[in-house]
Structures are given as C-alpha cells and as structure tokens.
Design brief:
single chain; alpha+beta; twelve-stranded antiparallel β-sheet; eight-stranded parallel barrel
Amino acid sequence: MIRNFSETAINRIRNAGAKEMIIAAILLVAFISLFFVPSQVQSLGIKRQAMPEYVKDGIAEVIGELDQQAGNIKLASNEGKDLYINTETLNIKVIDTQTRTEWSSLSLDKDSSVVDKSPVIIKYLGKDGALYEWDAYTYAIQNKRYTLNQIENGVQIIFDFFETESYRLNEYVPQKILAENYEAHFIDKIDEKLAEGAITEAQALKFKDALTLTYQYDSANDLYYYRFAGLPPLSLVRDLIAMTKAIDYTTDMLVEESSIHGLTVKITQPANFIVTMEVTLDNGDLVVKVPTYEIANSNDFYTMQNISVLPSFGMAAAKNVADGYIFVPDGTGALFKMNTFNGKFPEYERPIYNNTYYDKLYEMSEFPEDLMMPVFGLYYTDQKGKSSGLLGIVEKGAELGKIKVQLGVEDTSLGGTPNNKVFSSFDAMQFSRVKVFGPYSEEEARYTASTGVMDIDYTVRYKLFASEVTHYELAKAYQSYLIDQHGLQLSYDNRPKLFLDVIGGLMLEKRFLGIPYEKSQSMTSYDQLQGILQDLEGIPTVVNYKGVFNGGLHNSIGNKAELVKANGDKKELEQLMNYAASNEHELFFNIDLMRVYDDEDGFKPKRNAVYGFNNKPQAIHQYNLALGIFDTYTTAQYLLNPLNLSNTVDRFIKDSSGFDSIFVNDMGSTYYASYKDKEIVNPYISNSIVHDNLQKLTESKKVALDNPNSDKLPYATYAANISRESSDYGTMYTSVPFRQLVMNGLTQYTTLNVNLSADRSDYFILQALELGSIPKFTITAENVDILKYSEFREYFATEYRAIKQRMKELYEEYSAGIAKIGSAEIVNHRMVDENVFETTYASRVKVIVNYNKFAVTVEGHQLDALGYVIK
C-alpha cells in the first residue's frame, strides 16, 4: 500500500504545478507520520490544561496609621481574648480576659538576642549563590524603618529591611594579595594598632587567626590567595570586616591590590526588601498572614527566599518552665521535652509535606518519617503552677512551609538559647544548587536553579489555651478545625476487620535462549482472591487489589482502566466482585494516576513528565539502601506533569465506570510540582490541581488513599499505612499518636503491614486497641520465590498459605478486644509513662498499652512487654 501510494505521488509531482506540489508534500508528510510516528499521534490525546492562576487574598483595607511612639495599643477583642501591639518594639500580645494568661511574640529581656526581638526573620539569595539572613530588629525596627496601619481586628506591619552594612567579604579583603603587602597591610598594621592601644591583644589574636583561616600561601608566586571555594562562616566574615576597619584597610587599597592580579572588585548595591505582615484576632485565634506578592525588592541581585513568621510567639523561657513539651507532626507526632537542649542536636527543622523533595531527591533522608500535618504546638506549666499552650495551624502555603524547634536551657554558657520555641517559616522561593555533571558526579561544579518568588498568602492560625492541655487537646482542636473548614461529620465504625493489600499483576523478566523479555504475571488472580476471601469466612476485610489496571504494578499512564489479562477474564472478575459484595468484604481497585512507569499510550517523559531543578524530566528510581543513592538499573518512575493530570483523571473516571471503589495510590501524599524553565508549576498550584481531581473522583466513587496528608483526609473513606512512629530525632522525648487522634471519626485508618515488619504482631494489636487502627497485611496467592531477583523483592513474606494462621489469630485477639471496648470513639488519650499510654473510649472503657520491649508496672497494672490491659 505504501509503495503504491509513493509511486502515485511521484507521478503526480512530475506533472504538477507549484501549488499541487506543496499540497502533495503536506499530504505525504502527514501520511508518513501516521504510519511511522504513532506515539506522537497518540500523545496528542494527553491533553494539557491551562496554567491555573493564583487567586490572591489581597491585603486588608487600612483604617488609619498608628504612631510609632504610641506604645501599647489595643487592636481587637473577641471570644474572650484581647489583642495588643507595642508600636515601639512591635511586640504582639494576646491576653485571655478571664485567666489573664498572656502570649507574646517577642522577648524583651535585657539579655534577649536580636532574633528574640524580631517578629520576622528573612533569608535572601544573591546571584553569587550566597544565602543571607536578616532579623527584623537589626534591619528595620531599631532604625524605625516600619509602618503600622490599623486594619479591622488587627494591624498591618510594613517592614522596610535595609542593609546598613554589607557582609560580602569580597568588598573588604582581596582574593589575592602579594606576600609583602599581606605582611605590611595586615600583619604589621595589626601589630602597630596593638602597640598604639587601638586594639586589644584578644582582638589582635582574633584578627590574625581569621587571616590564617582565610588565606593560603602560594610560594611559587609569593602571594596569599583566598582559600574558600564558597562562603566562610559568618563569624569569620565579621571578624575580617572588623579587622579592615580597625587597621584602616580601605576600599581604594582593595581595588589597587586586586588590579595587580587582574581582578575586578564589584561593590554591590545594598539589599533592600519591603515585607508586609498582617496580624488579626479572629474568633479568639491569632491569625498572621504574609502575602509574598506584596514583597518589594529594590535590587534584583537578590531574591527573597525564606521568611520565618513570629519565631518567638508563645515561647517558654527556660527559667520559668516547671514542666512542658513542644509538639511537631513528625510521622504520627512527636514531643520534645522543654529545657533539654543538646549541643549534638542544636535544633530541629523539617519541611511540611516533604517539600524539599526535589532538592534532596538524590540523597536518602536521615528522617524515616515525613511531616504529614501542617501543625505545631507547645504546652507547659510554669514555676508558679500556671498552665497554657498553643497550636499553630498553617492555613495556607503549607506546601512551602517548614517547622522549627529550638529547645531552651537555663545555663547558656555551653550553648543553646534561654527560650523554648516552635514556629514556622516558608520558602517564598524554592531553589537548588544543581550539580553540572550529574547528582553523583565527583565534580563539584554547580549552578543555582530557582522558581523566583511565588505568589502565596502564607497564613498561620494560632489557637490559644489558657489552662492545662496535652497532645490530646491539641489533636481535638485540629480535628475541629478540619471539620469546620471542610464541612465534615464525625462517624465511627466499631466493626473489627482486616485490611489486605493484594498483589495482582506485574511484569517479570524472563529469558528465552538467554534473550531477556518481559512477561505478565499474576501473583493473585481473581479466582485466587475469591478463594482467599472464602477461606477468611467470618472475617470482614477491606481489599486493596493492586496490579489490576494498565499493565500492573509498573503501570502505564492512568487515563484508562485497561485490565491486566493475567489476573483472569471479566467473568471471573464479576464473580469476585459479587462474592465480595455479598460477604462483608469491601473491594477497592488500586490505581496510579500521577505515577507512570511505562512510556506507552502516548506518554513521553520529555513532553508529559514533571521536570526537576536540572530542567530535565525527573526520573525516580529505587534507592540502593547500602549506598543511599538511586539504583539507576531499576525501572524509572515518572510523575505526570500537573497540567496533564485533570484530563487523565477525567478519562479514567469515564473508562472505569464499572468500578465504584478505588484506592488511589499516589494522590494522598506525593509532593507535586514541576520546575521546567518558563513553565514552572509551583507546589501550591500543583496541590490545588490534585484537590480538584480528588473532588471529582469522590463525586463518582468511594476513594481510599495511601498515607494521606491531612489536607486530603476529606476525600478518604480509608487511610492506609498510617505509622505509629516518629523519626526519633536525637532530642525527641516520645512519639504520640496525634495523627490517629485527629483521624478518629473522620476516616478509618490502618496500621503499616503486619507481615512486612520486623515487629511482632503484638505491636499491631496494641495500635488496634489503643487507636482503633485496622491491622493490615500484604498478601499474594503465588509463592514469592519468583520475585526474589526482581524489582518486587520487597514482597518477601506475603504468601497467603504461609501467613493465614497468623492473620486469623491476630483477628481473633483483636476482635475480642474490640468487643470488650464497645466503641470506636476516643474521648481521651494520655501518656502514663514513657512509651505507656492510656486511651479512654466513649464507652468509658480504658485501654493501657505498653510499647516498651520490657514489662512495666503502672498505676497498679502489670503490663508485659508489648502488652495491654482493658479496664
């Protein structure tokens, strides 16, 4: 056919005029493209939505300007709270009108640091790759460079950050200096000033030490050169700047010395930023907003990078604390005990939702758990016996936020700060220092890639407690917040059940005469799964059937619901679905809608994938646990560009009309953004697209999610793989199940896999009885030996025949415990002792659990290792 078409075309061309020749050429190209570039034709079906616009909240209407000399001014009063500002110090204070409990944003003691006196701290990035940090007190407040505008129920503060003194070392000392000038202009001058009494011996020694640390002698050229490839420590920079002033080393001398070596000295225009912050009292909550689109910058050499919001609000002075804790949402949740500063772990700072993922992608995290909820808090009792606390909720911009903890110490002579703090910051601009020759190259050459400042109304709401509280009250406050924000209702299901991840279809490498090829393999067919459910008669299950659609576990794009043939035919599937529906089994079919392993059906990474900071499609591989790096020999996984997601979901919904319950594997907690040059889809916009598509899915189907962030909870009938652990960072005191307490009544949640854990089954029984968590197993019908040398080797103990007795025994004990408890509603949870917790249910039954690997006696109860008592 192609040959005949070609001959016809050639004959026509011989006899055609110019116009006909052009038309014939176009038709020929189109015909060849149709036959020889099918993937490009198919890719036209992967449609892209327009870039969503960020809808700005805007700034509040200004009622009037406040005088900087006015002192303390009452700004608002509602819900038993009063809001004040001191116009000279900019201290924000909230007072409870009944208890007179106070929460202040600044520490104004005489020994307070400039950071303690600053309502905001900014970091900005220079085109030289250096990151600078300024506190508001030094660069705005003490110089009266701020404006105060009164707004409804609060105040608008406009900070005018201005560089009073440069800390760019190249503007003070030369990169190279002749040895004779080094001696004459530096060493001899220091000795001369010391002899005159202009500087002290300590200063002279400090200056000489700074020079030794900064310069290396080059004997071949008889000169000293600047030894640092990057920036030296700020303390060293300050010492050298102080030295140039003390010994009268001028800019003219610097320029003259540099010209000897053919170097140019560039004096950069000072940095200057305008930052707007609004503080209001809303229904008794303190609400703080920083709109990035209001940031003004007079020098494009610099870009605003990060802003810390009220870093000292509600802090607890170490000298005043009798007992207290700081809470962070690390994994299940973690507590730091106040006044336990440790110099080996000076501070804790983590990104919310793992939002530094694309910057840190090529290295394994030192933290095993992520921050799944945008909250933080503290509570303590002071030396006088008065208790108070707060819960910070990042209302908007959590996709860019971070949480930081600083523990206090009364004696700061060995390091540490005199205050216990927890606060949030956010990245107004994300950036990464990309290795030019690849992430694992030994060459250190890098360039800086960044998003530029992103539009966001970063907003933090502080809920304030004027009496004794614990992690339980903080969790209930956040749960109530979610209910109000999303119009949710609490619902409790007390039926014991098991949650099963069932592995279905996947692709395995086979060989024929030594030649490798891939073959579709079902680890659990429809018939086999029905047989397993029949064997579990009397045990209700929730099944997450994986490897059902679009090629199996290593799936192609999810814009369809094409069944994996190796699992069986449609009649067998129908029988399975009918059996499950008739026998107390809930059957969810697993789908990846963002992740793509196979570049079929029109998906091409260059056109359709998320881009990393290196401006290339971001290939994600399995980690080599021994080396802590990507194993590039494993199958590459890609994330679909956020702008392609909506069309993909729409088409999946249409093609999967026969499946009412789906388990979405990747939309619960995958950090999502794309950093392609000139088409950056920032994290906030990307997450809004995910929300839109989850909403569409829940309108037509029942949805379960894998390990969802708290902002995705409104969409989840089940939340799977919820850990009971935190990262166990050096200064953490204990893990607390804050996350499960928030979920209780909002959705049903499972443990991690019982059979893929090194922990005993008892560990998961404790979670079931303490928190109402559903025990979870991963199973296969086939023997897992065939996976031993594949990329699916993590399924090492899943064969149903081998573990079914263990499953049934766990269910029997768990079911008996649930029957005794008689309720799924948790009405209190407290820490009895280290790793020992008591849960009170609405039935008034109490469960005490011991997570220690040794027996304990608490409150008259003897508890075995990993034991419990129901009373």
